[in-house]
Amino acid sequence: MGLLSLSQQTSMRTDTSSTSASSATTLAAPATTALRDAQFEAGLATRTQVMGEGFVEKAFASANDYTLVMQEFISRNAWGTVWQREGVDLKTRSLITVAMLTALGRSHELKGHVRGALNNGVTPEELRELFLHATVYCGFPLAIDGFRSACEVIEAVQAPHKATDSAQKP
Question: Looking at the whole model, is its pTM more than 0.85?
Fold first, then answer.
């Protein structure tokens, strides 16, 4: 299933009262229509480009009445503003974000943004250098934790490519 259009998202949200996992998904209205504007659309497009369609779909599909407003807010107010600005390309924004999340020790968010950084053209070698640099400025524990999180993501991203490469070798 592709990323839902704004009209689909506006009119639908996962129905958690369903008793069958295989039953059709029904979605309800957005948490607030005030957040669903052109800025939201631009943010949603950039968020999808950087983080990946599956990541964004999962974020919205797993949202409930209480948490949907946060997904809308993030898409509109983070991805629809600073991620839209000129002057710094997406690759650089990703590197900045990974560095800040490392400094804050936010491993869960870091993993998503490492994947986003890879999507934006950051290489595993550039990420390694970022974490070495973070060791000096953030301290060993934070940088090592960030490095471990990044390694998990890099290995997961590279695993399908390694399997394909080894299958093609005689």
Answer: no
